[in-house]
């Protein structure tokens, strides 16, 4: 039977879907499919300055999630954008395009 790895390095049987042992519902129950899940979790320790700790706490509060989940979300958000200057330039181009009419009206006001 497949095992699930937990963060505590203990293993337990994977949940299965199918007929209950010892129960017979006819020929179809004997050929019922089963579902097995395997999860892999990685533990990591983050050493943060007080300022970064406060920033992580604020992000977690804003998103209403745990600090662990907030750190994972921050990684997902930052990973595709290793070049910050290009990210800012692309973002500005999108915003200027989106709000061009508003910017023109403000400049003429």
Describe this structure in words.
It is a single chain. It is built from five helices and two strands. With 109 residues, the protein is mainly alpha-helical. The chain has three domains: 1-43, no CATH class; 48-78; 83-109. Helix 2 (50-63) packs across helix 3 (67-78). The longest helix is centred in the C-terminal third of the chain and has 15 residues, at 84-98. It is 50% helix and 6% strand. It has helices at 27-30, 50-63, 67-78, 84-98, 100-108; strands spanning 3-5, 11-13. Residues 6-10 have low confidence and may be disordered. It comes from Naasia aerilata. Residues 1-32 are annotated as: Disordered. This is ANTAR domain-containing protein.
Features:
6% strand, mainly alpha, 50% helix, two-stranded antiparallel ribbon, 109 residues, 3 domains
């Amino acid at each position: 039977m497949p095992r699930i790895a937990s963060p505590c390095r203990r293993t337990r049987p994977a949940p299965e879907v199918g007929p209950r042992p010892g129960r017979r519902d006819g020929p179809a129950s004997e050929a019922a499919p089963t579902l097995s899940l395997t999860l892999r979790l990685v533990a990591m320790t983050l050493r943060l300055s007080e300022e970064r700790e406060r920033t992580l706490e604020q992000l977690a509060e804003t998103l209403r999630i745990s600090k662990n989940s907030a750190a994972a979300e921050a990684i997902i958000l930052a990973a595709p954008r290793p070049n910050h200057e290009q990210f800012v330039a692309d973002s500005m181009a999108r915003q200027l395009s989106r709000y061009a009419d508003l910017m023109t009206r403000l400049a003429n006001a």
